[in-house]
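Q: My labmate handed me this sequence with no annotations at all. I'd like to see what the chain might look like in three dimensions before we decide whether it's worth expressing. Could you predict it?
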Amino acid sequence: MSETTTASYDQAVALFASGDFEGSHALAVELLQARPQDPELLRLAGRSGVELGRDDAVAQLEQAAAADADNPEVWRELGDALLSEGRLEDATRAIAQAVERRPDDVDSLVDYAHVLNVSGDTDAAVQHLEKVLELDFNNLSALRGLVGMYRESGRLEDALQAGRKVISYRPSDIGTAIDVAEIALELNRLEDASEAFRWLRDVDDEPDHEVYAVHGMIETEMRRERWRVALDLAIDATRVDRLGRTTDVLAYIVTQVFGAGQRPAPDRREVDDALAASREEHRRLHSSLGV
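A: Here is what I predict for the chain of 291 residues:
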């Protein structure tokens, strides 16, 4: 590149880094008129085009990959672009090219593991994430991925250990804390589950979220048949539950402590379903927040 072109390219890169994808894309496309086969310009146009939802973004990244085929980064970027269009098989092949060229690149390995898992090859996905941990033992992306994949594969103890590592490195990771609590429940490790829900109550400072952690604590105490403790928690939950989601739970627990009253109370299955729905709602809220 000439000095002028280099300066303009650097400006386009800076615009992309600042989040001005429109400006970055426009400048990259302008520079491509003079250098239509330049792989760096094609990459920049393609990456900014992906952010903007441009129809030609994948084609530009395919051109970049053809022009700079030994560069694993361009294959990863092409894979991400293909994923954004829902082209899973093509994305898998592109990211595989990145892994082939740089087998020890943890970002490529993580991406490859996730597309393999979505494709249904969970065992291979787990192997790639475990390789990431051999290269970078505290890689949070790999650990988070393994929590879900171990859980899907029935390896609940491994999932629990991976989740605990994530929380030890990132205490504010609410999604993983929910995972840890739920996995402990699945394993019937009730003290561990109780501790995880108490942790959630302390660290989740989103408005109106305290009720979800308390619901988890209630569920744990119900399983232990510690009805007086569950009653105290249910009363706590009603104080922070503005939508009345605890009413039936409290009614059921009251019958366990004091006996059936004149009004019919919900049965255990209904209460268990309500508490499971509360956990799912908590997870969904944090997924929508990107937490």
